[in-house]
Specification:
This protein has 3 helices and 5 strands. The strands form 2 sheets. A 3-stranded antiparallel sheet has the order 1-2-3, with no helix packed on it. Helix 1 packs antiparallel against helix 2. It starts with a strand and ends with a helix.
Length: 129
């Protein structure tokens, strides 16, 4: 049957899960575990290819086109990295607000501070009139 991939690592035939080593880029960033890193590198590579190839087709200067490609990689990677991180931060803040709202609803449900209780009592008073 061989090895099967588990969520946290590699599952062996005996059922043991051994942690899978991540891919480290330049020995610094673990691309598989760092949020936004994989996508940033992929989009940066695409940006480098487009910028370098476009510059080469326009000018036929090889060395300068390589420089433009490297610049395109850096700009695209950093740009997408920042965009992705900001979106992740917004998402985390929204999740925290929802969690706090759910926690407060559970905490205040049935008490005098329950907003639904005030709405229900005002609606019941109007329907009786």
């Amino acid at each position: 049957s061989g090895h099967r991939c588990a969520a946290a690592g590699i599952m062996t035939e005996e059922g043991d899960v051994t942690p899978e080593k991540g891919f480290k880029l330049l020995g610094i960033i673990d691309v598989q575990r760092t949020p936004c890193a994989r996508e940033s590198i992929l989009y940066g590579s695409l940006g480098a290819l487009i910028a370098g190839l476009g510059h080469f087709l326009a000018t036929s200067r090889v060395r300068r086109s390589c420089d433009v490609g490297v610049g395109g990689f850096i700009i695209t990677t950093l740009g997408f990295w920042m965009y992705c991180r900001v979106n992740n931060a917004k998402l985390r803040m929204q999740q925290k607000m929802v969690e706090d709202g759910m926690r407060n609803r559970i905490l205040f449900e049935g008490s005098s501070r329950d907003p639904n209780r005030k709405l229900n009592s005002s609606n019941q008073g109007r329907s009786e009139e």
